[in-house]
């Protein structure tokens, strides 16, 4: 047990004491007479004198404070306000031995029967099997969960009727994660494929829950769905749900791109030359193989946009380049103005200063990480 009095006091004539202060909101304009008439009031009038109710919770609180602190008295103060002016009521309460002895018996019983068993063994919050003391009439159904705390239910109580599935779970067990039914999202591509009579190059009829690859080409009218095995693919391409196209649609889009292209590079060689020139301007040395690649020999090769060539099988290496890249060359060295900013107490650090500091730390100690 514990006690928290609002203040402690001592007097040469009265001895050591404590105090408890209350400020009820229900006291209007410091009218204690009308406050005493309320049922929720903590004060009462006995023999024309106002005092604290002896059966109120505040009285038990004061007696506990006197017992725990071993003080000789407690000043119980009630404060009220009227237009900013305070008004006080005070009663000096002394230890009530009879009241405390009765209270200790009740507290001990609550501790032993309620609090202590719950702290040691979770006596009241743990799951327990409930047994029916009396067999009731009516048709019942058993829960399929072997660990259900109720086991059996009446049709009438749950307002259910036949037929009941072979595996039936009660409303309590139905909320457990292991007994919740998983809702599978319907694949729209599979639904569209089931409407066709034949799919793929094998001209077979689509089956339910079959993994199919859909062509996203504009001219794909028939044979819009394909099997992975028929295409010699072990897995779905990364662009299977966005831009993947079959071989016939790729050829059609390539022919359309070559005929409609009027500006820009017409071959992969010119594109590579532009990239080589851009790399040389940035200080990177680029070396290219002397042997022409397949795309250089065939100007009409599949040099189309990246939207139609996201699949790994469509990627073809046209050239290789090697060189040295100086990551710190673009930053340069710090000048005097930078050092003035660093030394100034009101200066601020920009990205160049912070990056150069990281580079110097890395050179001083290569074991430093996070750079």
UniProtKB/TrEMBL annotation:
Residues 308-317 have a biased composition (Acidic residues). Residues 134-174, 199-250 form the Zinc finger PHD-type domain. Residues 280-292 have a biased composition (Polar residues). Residues 280-326 are annotated as: Disordered. Keywords: Metal-binding, Zinc, Zinc-finger. InterPro entries: PDDEXK-like_dom_sf, Restrct_endonuc-II-like, Znf_FYVE_PHD, Znf_PHD, Znf_RING/FYVE/PHD. This is Zinc finger PHD-type domain-containing protein. It comes from Porites lobata.
């Amino acid at each position: 047990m514990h006690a928290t009095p609002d203040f402690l006091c001592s007097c040469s004539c009265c001895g050591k004491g404590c105090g408890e202060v209350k400020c009820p909101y229900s006291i209007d304009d410091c009218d204690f007479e009308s406050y005493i008439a309320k049922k929720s009031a903590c004060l009462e009038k006995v023999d024309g004198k106002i005092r604290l109710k002896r059966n109120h919770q505040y009285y038990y609180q004061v007696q506990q404070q006197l017992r725990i602190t071993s003080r000789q008295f407690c000043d119980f103060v009630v404060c009220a306000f009227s237009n900013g002016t305070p008004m006080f009521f005070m009663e000096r309460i002394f230890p009530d031995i009879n009241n405390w002895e009765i209270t200790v018996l009740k507290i001990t019983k609550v501790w032993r029967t309620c609090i202590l068993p719950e702290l040691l063994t979770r006596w009241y919050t743990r799951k327990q099997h409930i047994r029916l003391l009396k067999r009731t009439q009516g048709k019942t159904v058993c829960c399929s969960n072997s660990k259900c705390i109720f086991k059996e239910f009446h049709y009438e109580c749950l307002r259910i009727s036949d037929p009941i599935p072979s595996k039936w779970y009660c409303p309590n067990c139905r909320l457990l994660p292991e007994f919740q039914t998983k809702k599978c999202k319907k694949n729209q591509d599979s639904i569209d494929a089931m409407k066709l009579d034949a799919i793929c190059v094998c001209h077979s009829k689509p089956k339910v829950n079959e993994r199919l690859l859909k062509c996203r080409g504009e001219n794909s009218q028939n044979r819009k769905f394909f099997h992975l095995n028929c295409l010699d693919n072990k897995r779905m391409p990364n662009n299977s749900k966005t831009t993947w196209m079959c071989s016939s649609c790729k050829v059609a889009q390539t022919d359309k791109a070559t005929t409609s292209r009027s500006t820009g590079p017409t071959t992969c060689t010119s594109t590579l030359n532009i990239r080589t020139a851009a790399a040389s301007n940035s200080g990177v040395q680029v070396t290219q193989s002397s042997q022409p690649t397949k795309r250089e020999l065939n100007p009409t090769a599949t040099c189309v946009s990246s939207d139609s060539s996201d699949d790994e099988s469509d990627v073809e290496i046209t050239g290789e380049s090697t060189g040295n890249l100086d990551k710190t060359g673009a930053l340069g060295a710090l000048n005097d103005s930078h050092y003035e900013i660093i030394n100034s107490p009101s200066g601020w650090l920009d990205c160049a200063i912070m990056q150069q500091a990281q580079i110097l730390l890395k050179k001083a100690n290569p074991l430093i990480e996070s750079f």
